[in-house]
Specification:
The complex is a heterodimer of chains A (239) and B (221). By secondary structure, chain A is an all-alpha fold. Chain A has six helices and no strands. Chain A is 78% helix and 0% strand. Chain A is globular. Chain B contains ten helices and no strands. The chains are: A mainly alpha (239), B mainly alpha (221).
């Protein structure tokens, strides 16, 4: 972790890793989507609408995981003043917000034919929606400060306060038994989805993860570069 | 400890002499509650169902709108710098300010709430639990609000941002408070919800001043 506190080192290593994650994400998306659309048979009751699981579950899982990753980043940034950790949380936020929105929209699209309603105020849906508001608040807080050195710790504090709700979103289906079904994937769980769905779902999950890592690396690199540009402009203005 | 009470007294005095004390917050609460029958129609059976939730939403907004009074003026005129330098820990200073904020916004609501409950035709047996729920829950609103107010204290236009940051954090208090009122209104036992509300307030009591003080230190940097 400490070696990446040096932005130069981060740029060098991330530049090497980036092509691999990008190519791997594309390959896994291609294979996973092919499986999901052409190979997997339609579900017995729900028919083809069940295929949305291959987008909905990875997006929803990532929406929570990205927030928790941002919390860890924020904690590291607050405690050790790690210069790249701030940027890492900032870079992940819009991606996480998009995945949360994607999970909410795909859930609604599936819910209408299956549950008979676009939206219910069930524990899982509600906590996911609140998580979305936390992403929005986090991004808004970054934008509200003129001075980045003030924005970073303020946003980090807010991120940590919101972690309570990310954990709530993760365990909501286990704490309250409302309309949303329990988790589709658990490590070592007895009741996973059927094997026909399991493998493509894991592939899509990995594809989404790699897609996130790729986007995240690109965005952190962009942040580091824009910081450099600002520093150069400031130095030029002083002369 | 003397400094703590002195600070709370100062904030109370300031609120009474310049901001009209709790009157404005209560006026806002009353007007919001009065808007409900205009919005959803004056049918008593409909109003009695939504009364607890509406009272809670009005209380939430009244608390939130007065948050800018909490730190903003002190950060702008430099008193907050003196407070941060004083021997009183900034966390305790935040707590004293929250106490003053609650005394001028939360406490008056407890008196206004039963009156507004009559106009929203809430069932009689729910009055006691509703006031108790507000008494247990509104301190948490002031404490959680301090986090949002602290994060936006240094900004010139923090108002809307404070709302965006704070309102999601108010959701659990709102849910439990409304559930307590609804349970009592339909003749059920509201005590589990009241206990959970109390738990939220007790958890906020040590944690929120810590977070708000950390945020304030940033605003003062």
């Amino acid at each position: 972790m400490w070696s990446f506190a040096n932005p130069n080192k981060f740029m060098r290593v991330s530049g090497k890793v980036l092509p691999y994650t990008a190519v791997l994400a594309v390959l896994l998306f291609a294979a996973g989507l092919y499986q999901a659309i052409y190979v997997v048979p339609p579900e017995r009751v729900q028919g083809d609408s069940a295929r949305i699981i291959f987008v909905h579950v990875p997006a929803a899982a990532l929406s929570i995981m990205i927030y928790l990753a941002m919390c860890i980043s924020s904690l590291v940034a607050l405690i050790w003043r790690h210069p790249v950790a701030d940027l890492s949380a900032k870079a992940a936020a819009p991606v996480g917000a998009s995945f949360t929105a994607l999970a909410l929209v795909t859930g609604a699209l599936w819910g209408y034919p299956t549950w008979g309603t676009w939206w219910v105020w069930d524990a899982r849906l509600t906590s996911e929606l609140i998580l979305f508001f936390f992403y929005i608040g986090y991004i808004a807080l970054w934008d509200a400060f003129d001075d980045e050195s003030k924005a970073a710790p303020a946003a980090a504090i807010f991120c940590l306060v919101g972690s309570v709700f990310a954990v709530l979103a993760k365990y909501s289906v286990e704490l309250w038994e409302t309309l949303h079904q329990p988790p589709s994937l658990t490590i070592g769980g007895e009741e996973n989805v059927h094997d026909v769905y399991h493998i493509p779902l894991l592939m899509m999950m990995a594809a989404f993860w790699l897609y996130f890592v790729t986007l995240w690396l690109v965005r952190v690199r962009m942040e580091i570069r824009s910081r450099r540009i600002r520093a150069i402009r400031l130095a030029a203005a002083r002369e | 400890m003397r400094a703590f009470w002195a600070l709370a007294r100062r904030d109370l005095t300031l609120a009474f002499r310049t901001g009209g004390g709790g009157a404005l917050g209560v006026a806002f609460f009353v007007i919001t509650a009065v808007l409900v029958p205009f919005g959803v129609g004056p049918k008593p059976d409909l109003l009695s169902v939504i009364a607890p939730g509406m009272l809670w939403i009005a209380a939430l907004l009244a608390c939130m709108l007065t948050l800018d009074r909490l730190f903003q003026a002190d950060v702008e005129d430099g008193s907050m710098d003196l407070l941060a330098l004083s021997p009183l820990a900034l966390e305790l200073a935040v707590l004293a300010k929250c106490l003053a904020h609650w005394l001028t916004t939360g406490l008056p609501l407890l008196i206004a709430a039963p009156v507004m409950a009559i106009t929203l035709s809430m069932p009689g047996e729910a009055y006691g639990p509703m006031v108790l729920a507000l008494a247990l829950g509104t301190p948490a609103l002031s404490l959680i609000g301090a986090i949002g107010a602290g994060l936006t204290a240094g900004m010139r236009r923090g108002g809307v941002l404070t709302a965006v940051l704070v309102l999601p954090l108010y959701v659990p208090t709102l849910i439990l408070g409304a559930l307590a009122g609804n349970a009592a209104a339909s003749g059920l036992d509201p005590s589990p919800y009241l206990m959970l509300l109390g738990a939220i307030t007790l958890a906020c009591l040590p944690l929120c001043p810590l977070v708000a003080a950390a945020a304030l230190r940033l605003a003062l940097r």
